[in-house]
Amino acid sequence: VATRAFLPDWLYWGGALRPGLALEVDEAGLVVGATEGRAAADVERLAGRALLPGLVNAHSHAFQRLIRGRTEFAAGGERDDFWTWREAMFSAASALDPEGVFVASRQAFLEMALAGITCVGEFHYLHRDPDGRAYADPDELSVQVVRAAREVGIRIALLRVGYARSGFRTPENPRQRRFIDSSPDEVLRAADRLRTALRSDEAVSVGIAPHSVRAVPRSWLEEITRAWDGVVHMHAAEQPAEVEACVQEHGLRPIELAAEIGMLGSRFTAVHAIHLSDGEIAALGSAAANVCACPSTERNLGDGVVPADRLLAAGAHLALGTDSQASIDLLEDARQLELHLRLVRLRRAVLDPGRGEQTGLARVLFGTATEGGARSLGLSVGRLRPGAPADFFTVDLHHPSLVGAGGDAALGAIVFGGGPAAVRDVYVAGRSVVREGRHALEEQSGRAFSALARRIFG
Ligand SMILES: [Zn+2]
Questions:
Q1: Is 306 in contact with 298 (CB distance < 8 Å)?
Q2: pTM of the full predicted structure?
Q3: Do β-strands 55-60 and 117-124 pair in parallel, antiparallel, or remain unpaired?
Q4: What single DSSP character describes residue 217?
Q5: Mind listing the pLDDT tens digit of every residue in the chain (458 residues)?
Q6: Interval between CA 272 and ligand 1 midpoint (Å)
């Protein structure tokens, strides 16, 4: 089998940055191994760069990129919070036709690629037209989102959302019409159809996502849990009001309800999981479930801080998401997971495994941004090892944000001080997506996105 090789100054291999190793990739885009001193003609020398496994963004709503910067004020002149922000998000969601969904998603995915993200879990809940009618192809908008990711070149796990209602004893909100499914069976059939239709592309997978305990009743959760054999994602315990409504309806908190139904396990991801009881933390941990924290969004919306230290200690697994796209920089999310806890716990290095190693904490955080996301999405990405997809990115170690950070310690600089500006090359399944910090569709996508934003916001 013909192979190619990439020789950076430092290769992240086996959990550490190592010098002098070339990453070998076969024609199918899979990692063959890491070899020393390879000098063949097909070696691509990546001088001055560190090569790392691609970042896995486990929770995204791509179209929300449209409202970035447009909601950073108290719209009612009074208190602004998650719920007022949500109304602005609904407005943008109402304005998108299928092409608009494609254009907005493509711009978000392109920005992700430029940030070293090679795989996205897209929590997709726009299904119907603005009047609440199904499109001729009921999967039209899902297909547009997948097309956007694949045109950019990143891997996508489409998490097909199920949405039944505005909430427990909550009047219908006409601006949620586009999200609504008529039954859990409709959700399951849509996910099955998509899984079959998209099977030919190995960079596309399909999961299912009951939106939240607010948006679906218990019977839906039970039916989906019984019938679906893939990954299941659900927003949970993001806001205190959501927890209170859940207790009112079920006499249980959101994760208590999920546990009682039998949802918790390694295929399950609770997105946010901020307002948790001790029992809920223990339940997530003993089930080895995943928690996807989205720190840049959670701080933007005033949600609170994910108790990542207690979740890890209990045995839960952590992943990260850019969620609302308030910013798209997964390394920033990785460090905020730790830095927010410092503000709460009034100490440093909260998530450090405690072995006294300089890169111990950086490794934990980088792991959540890569392997943690892969586990949450049920994919074999996130780690460079023989047989895994060759999804990776490089950073320029001479970039002003990183210069001077040598050796294995560079991981600390990359995680705590790096960002999209230092990203140079991005590869997905061995194919080049970003070269020298640029994406081929940057101008075209930016132009289309600007025109779309003008059409919606004037
Ligand atoms: Zn979300």
A1: yes
A2: 0.97
A3: parallel
A4: -
A5: 578 999 999 999 999 999 999 999 999 999 999 998 765 668 999 999 999 999 999 999 999 999 999 888 887 777 788 888 888 888 888 999 999 999 999 999 999 999 999 999 999 999 999 999 999 999 999 999 999 999 999 999 999 999 999 998 898 888 889 999 999 999 999 999 999 999 999 999 999 999 999 999 999 999 999 999 999 999 999 999 999 999 999 999 999 999 999 999 999 999 999 999 999 999 999 999 999 999 999 999 999 999 999 999 999 999 999 999 999 999 999 999 999 999 999 999 999 999 999 999 999 999 999 999 999 999 999 999 999 999 999 999 999 999 999 787 899 999 999 999 999 999 999 999 999 999 999 999 999 999 999 999 98
A6: 8
C-alpha of residue 457 to centroid of ligand 1, in Å: 23
Give all strands (DSSP E) within 323-422, no chain letters: 392-396
Cα–ligand 1 centroid distance for 322 (angstroms): 9
Q: How big, in percent rounded to 5, are the helix, strand and coil portions of the chain?
A: 40, 25, 35
Catalytic site residue from 139, 303, 323, 391: 323
Distances (CA, A) of 437 to 135, 393, 432: 38, 10, 11
- Catalytic (active site) residue 323: yes
Q: How far is the CA of 262 from the centre of ligand 1 (A)?
A: 22
Angle 410-417/330-345 helices, nearest 10 degrees?
Answer: 80
- Residues, CB within 5 angstroms of ligand 1 (ion): 323
Q: Which of 127, 233, 272, 340 is catalytic?
A: 272
Q: In degrees, to the nearest 5, what angle opens at C-alpha 387 toward C-alphas 148 and 60?
A: 30
Phi then psi dihedrals of residue 359, to 5 deg: -105, 10
Contacts of residue 451, defined as CB under 8 A and 6 or more positions apart, other chains included, come to none
Return d(Cα 375, Cα 288) in angstroms, integer.
11
Let me know if 399 is a catalytic residue: no
Q: How far is the CA of 59 from the centre of ligand 1 (A)?
A: 6
**CA 12 – ligand 1 centroid, Å:** 30
Please name the helix (run of DSSP H) or strand (run of DSSP E) that holds residue 1, with its range, or none: none
C-alpha closest to that of 34 among 1, 57, 11: 11
